[in-house]
């Protein structure tokens, strides 16, 4: 592709890589450097990333969305952008929709790219996102699955193993509302369970397929009674 050919002939781009999985981080670093993308800083968590942000002088930051407990990759990206306003941002994740990680995520930084790991048959798409992040500061909208916010959050809580009553408490709604949301979510996803248990299992499987992982969803914080 023309953009990649041009990149290969230009100066090396300096990249910050924020990824909590050691194997993924090492693999990405080796692959990116084949495209004149030099990884000048690496971090596995928010604290380390923010500590390196200014001194690294990276032109682009690649941030994993799910960094485990604590700040998300979007939180870290926004923090780095405040410290280094000119830095390009790419969010790299297995989540088809960031709402599947949390219902209360911060907005993507302007001009950010959003790359789903499952789409990386090769690295061209990621490299194009890196280049694009340097060329745009327009408002960015993350991709969304065809579910409402309440359906996404209910699906996430169900995948955590919560009962309908627990989901109702976490979302501060009636149990009947949760039941209706689960039914509508199943219909939207084309799931016809033979019984309540089968439907819940199918919905949990649908969630894990959407997040590209069998990783347990983030812990649930219940509102005070």
Q: Care to give the gist of this entry?
A:
With 225 residues, the chain is α/β, with parallel strands linked by helices.
Write structural notes for this entry:
With 225 residues, the chain is α/β, with parallel strands linked by helices. The chain has two domains: 2-135, Response regulator (Rossmann fold, 3-Layer(aba) Sandwich), CATH 3.40.50; 149-211, Arc Repressor Mutant, subunit A (Orthogonal Bundle). Helix content is 45%, strand content 12%. Helix 3 runs parallel beside helix 4 (73-83), helix 6 packs across helix 7 (164-171) and helix 6 crosses helix 9.
Radius of gyration using CA atoms only: 19 Å
- Give the CATH H-level superfamily of the largest domain: Response regulator
Average pLDDT metric: 85
Give the total of beta strands: 5
Question: Approximately what portion of the residues adopt beta-strand conformation?
Answer: 5-15%
* Highest CATH level, the class of the largest domain: Alpha Beta
Low-confidence stretches: 1-9
CATH architectural designation of the largest domain:
3-Layer(aba) Sandwich
Morphology: elongated
Distance from N terminus to C terminus (CA atoms, Å) equals 57 Å
Q: What strand line-up does the widest sheet have?
A: 2-1-3-4-5
Number of helices: 9
**Helix and strand run:** HEHEHEHEEHHHHH
Secondary-structure content class: alpha/beta
Sheet having the most strands: 5 strands, parallel
Helix content: 40-55%
Number of domains: 2
What is the CATH third-level topology name of the largest domain? Rossmann fold
């Amino acid at each position: 592709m023309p953009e990649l050919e041009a990149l290969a002939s230009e100066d090396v781009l300096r990249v910050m890589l924020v990824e909590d999985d050691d194997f993924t981080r090492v693999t990405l670093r080796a692959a990116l450097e084949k495209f004149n993308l030099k990884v000048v800083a690496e971090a596995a968590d928010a604290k380390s990333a923010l500590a390196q942000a200014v001194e690294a002088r990276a032109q682009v930051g690649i941030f994993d969305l799910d960094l485990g407990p604590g700040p998300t990759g979007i939180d870290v990206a926004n923090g780095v952008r405040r410290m280094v306003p000119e830095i390009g941002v790419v969010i790299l994740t297995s989540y088809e929709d960031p709402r599947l990680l949390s219902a209360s995520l911060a907005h993507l930084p302007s001009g950010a790219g959003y790359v789903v790991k499952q789409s990386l048959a090769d690295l061209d798409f990621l490299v194009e996102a890196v280049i694009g992040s340097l060329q745009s500061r327009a408002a960015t909208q993350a991709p969304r699955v065809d579910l409402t916010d309440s359906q996404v959050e209910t699906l996430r809580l169900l995948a955590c193993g919560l009962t309908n009553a627990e989901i109702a408490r976490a979302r501060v709604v009636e149990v009947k509302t949760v039941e209706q949301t689960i039914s509508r979510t199943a219909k939207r996803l084309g799931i016809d369970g033979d019984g309540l248990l089968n439907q819940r299992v199918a919905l949990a499987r649908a969630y894990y397929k959407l997040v590209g992982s069998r990783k347990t969803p983030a812990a649930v914080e219940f509102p005070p009674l």
